[in-house]
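Feature request disguised as a bug: please show the residue count (198) next to SRR1L protein in the output. Example input:
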Amino acid sequence: RCVCYGLGRFSCCPAARHQLAFLLLLLEELGVPPGRCSVFDPAFSAQEAAALVELGLRLLPDNEEGKHGIEGSSTLFYMVHCGKALYNNLLWRNWSAGALSKMVIIGNSFKGIEERLLSRILERDYSYIAKVLKGTEEVALPAHPQYLDTFNDTSVHWFPLQKLEELSPEVWDGVEEPTYQDCEIIRKGDRAEQGSPA
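Example output, currently without the count:
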């Protein structure tokens, strides 16, 4: 399965079109039928939503704020240039070694997030990203001069079960739902969602 968040307005943004094209090629390469790929962005226009359905992709009906559970299925999350809160919410929703080991995330480099944020901010605001760093394998997408703005700082992340099991037991305790002071994600019911066909 595949879940795509934050694709953006591909009808008017070339970078978003390139990201959509890469997603479609990736699905083809991995043998994932388009109908097994769910997409959501509160910014989609009705025309963009119709185009995605025409391509065979499945629109998620609600803004999950990144909180998509894998429900035991191996799942690829395609989240290029999404906000840190979206990654943090996704990790929280799947916070167990068994679930995380069945996930692959293509999105902003977790190492880059760690390098750019003060450790106290990372641990306070994005605690699930902070806690999973030692259990993460990450490989950066190769840079291409034509697509620097499209895929810069993008990595493939996966979470080997053995590495997760080596984390201290306290890492898995106290699974509180994240809250954010200055939210960088569009929440359910926010105005930006009203243009959304979903």
